Amino acid sequence: VDTVTGPYDVIVVVEGETLNDIGGLVTAKIHPTAGISRTVSCLVMEDRK
């Protein structure tokens, strides 16, 4: 979890085997968190190191 400046307050990086796994995590663990009113999900298409 990173606290940032700009249009978003926090960036959370999660990993999952499938999109369903990631969606389930966001729905079950992040959305119910007090103070969370909305989320935006962005997928990494290619990780260049």
Describe the structure.
This is Transcription regulator AsnC/Lrp ligand binding domain-containing protein. It comes from marine sediment metagenome. With about 50 residues, the chain is an alpha+beta fold. It has one domain (about 1-49). Helices cover about 25% and strands about 10% of the residues. It has one helix at about 20-30, and strands spanning about 1-5, 10. The chain has a two-stranded antiparallel ribbon with strand order 1-2. A hairpin with a 6-residue loop joins strand 1 (about 1-5) and strand 2. The two termini are about 20 Å apart. The model has no long low-confidence stretch (mean pLDDT about 90).
Could you outline the blueprint of secondary structure elements for this entry?
Blueprint: E1 2-3, E2 10-11, H1 19-30
Antiparallel strand pairs: 1-2
InterPro entries: Dimeric_a/b-barrel (IPR011008), Tscrpt_reg_AsnC/Lrp_C (IPR019887)
Protein name: Transcription regulator AsnC/Lrp ligand binding domain-containing protein
Domain Transcription regulator AsnC/Lrp ligand binding: 3-46
Low-pLDDT segments, ≥5 res: none
How many strand segments? 2
- Biggest sheet architecture: 2 strands, antiparallel
Average pLDDT for all residues: 91
Principal-axis shape = flat
How many domains? The number is 1
Can you give the helix content as a percent range?
A: 10-25%
User: N- to C-terminal separation?
Assistant: 20 Å
SSE string, helices as H and strands as E: EEH
Strand order of the biggest β-sheet: 1-2
Please report which band the strand proportion falls in: under 5%, 5-15%, 15-25%, 25-35%, 35-45% or over 45%.
5-15%
Pfam family, one: AsnC_trans_reg
Protein name: Transcription regulator AsnC/Lrp ligand binding domain-containing protein
Organism: marine sediment metagenome
InterPro entries: Dimeric_a/b-barrel (IPR011008), Tscrpt_reg_AsnC/Lrp_C (IPR019887)
